[in-house]
Design goal:
The protein is built from seven helices and 15 strands. The chain is an alpha+beta fold and about 375 residues long. The chain starts with 13 loop residues before the first helix and ends in an 11-residue tail after the last helix. Bound molecules: zinc ion (ZN) (2 copies).
């Protein structure tokens, strides 16, 4: 067979998308497709994103099950089930290990997709489909990034359906035990010497059949809606850093584990401070006379009182003073910069000229020119 199964075939129910049974004839599938495509066509529903999503779903379903060859492969994939392949029950080394990254497709441009991380290990390859990893962005004030904080972000993403609490059944109705697997969620199959266990195809491994699907989510137990997530930001985070929140990504389906949420950090600039590792940096302008004669200079800190540093006589521009423990979690590195006035008063000019008169060594003597 030339048609390569796509990994989304494991997770998408194209028959359900077109509202037909998996035994429907090619003619019925086409008929169902035409009707749905008409109803949900973007031209008929301008600006309606839900209709557009639905239209895409319908189209990709028909792409596969509207094509005899592809439909055969798809049916085969469905028969195997996503986790089939292990001997005697649990999935073994021969099992499929597929990342269901494209569940997040619904989210469109709102979120990127994280990697699968270390998930998908043998213990977690139970029934159901793991939720997608999500990414959100959080912009922090400079101070908050230095000290850390606890905050709440609101993101619109796939979430457990609030109407059916993820169960998929219309409130008031209960799923019926699956008649094929008698509620076990797996089917045993003898093949020569070996006995295979695979997720029950009739109930997708759930063990029960939803007879009256939830109206909000269509029975998948997942909907897209805004939700609040608490995030604890550790002290000292930097722009570009990602905070991983285990299990706060997209909800799993059919009892699968949820994905993770990655919060990408942006830190706003501070008008005075910069950062160098754990330390804060600041430029402290001083006059030539302060540099030459020495001075006491006040330096601001991020929080609390300013600190006075003692500039010794003869300090060059660029010299850095370390103020221990004054920079949130680290130190403040205060670098003095000798400020040169752009305009001199007559009095200042006379004083500088007197200084020039009294200066006999050149600071460039070592250049030898
Ligand atoms: Zn629901
Ligand atoms: Zn079953």
């Amino acid at each position: 067979m030339s048609t390569e199964p796509q990994k989304e075939w494991f997770e998408k129910d194209y028959y359900k998308a077109l509202g037909v049974s998996d035994k429907a004839s090619a003619k019925d599938i086409t008929k169902a497709y035409r009707k749905l495509a008409r109803d949900f066509h973007p031209d008929a529903n301008p600006g309606d994103e839900k209709a557009e999503e639905r239209f895409k779903e319908i189209s990709s379903a028909y792409d596969v099950i509207g094509d005899e060859e592809k439909r055969k492969s798809y049916d085969e994939v469905r028969r195997m089930g996503p986790m089939a392949g292990g001997f005697g029950g649990g999935p073994g080394p021969g099992g499929f290990n597929v990342g269901f990254d494209d569940i997040g497709d619904l989210l469109g441009g709102l979120f990127g997709r994280g990697g699968r991380g270390g998930r998908g290990g043998p213990q977690e390859q139970t029934r159901g489909q793991p939720g997608s990893d999500l990414e959100a962005e959080l912009t922090l004030d400079f101070d908050d990034a230095v000290t850390g904080l606890e905050t709440t972000i609101t993101l619109t993403s796939e979430a457990t359906c609030s109407t059916c609490s993820g169960g998929g059944s219309k409130p008031g109705s209960t799923p019926e035990p699956c008649g094929v697997c008698h509620g076990k969620g797996v089917q045993d199959e003898n093949q020569g010497l070996f006995s295979f266990s695979r997720p029950c195809a009739a109930c997708s491994g759930r063990g029960s059949i939803i007879t009256d699907p939830c109206r909000s989510c269509g029975g998948i137990g997942v909907e897209v809606r805004p939700r609040d997530v608490k995030v604890r930001i550790p002290a000292g985070v930097k722009t570009g850093q990602k905070i991983r929140l285990n299990g706060r990504g997209g909800p799993g389906r059919l009892g699968g584990p949820p994905g993770d949420l990655f919060v990408r950090i942006n830190v706003a600039d501070h008008p005075l401070f910069g950062r160098n590792g754990k330390d804060l940096t600041i430029d402290v302008p001083i006059t030539f006379s302060e540099a030459a004669l020495g001075a006491k200079v006040k330096v601001p800190t991020l929080e609390g009182e300013p600190v006075t540093i003692k500039i010794p006589p003869g300090t060059s521009t660029g010299k850095t003073f370390r103020l221990r423990g004054k920079g949130g979690g680290g130190d403040v590195l205060a670098t003095v910069v000798v400020a040169v006035p752009s305009n001199l008063t007559a009095e200042q000019r006379a004083a500088v000229e007197a200084l020039a008169q009294a200066t006999h060594e050149s600071p460039r003597a070592h250049l030898g020119v």
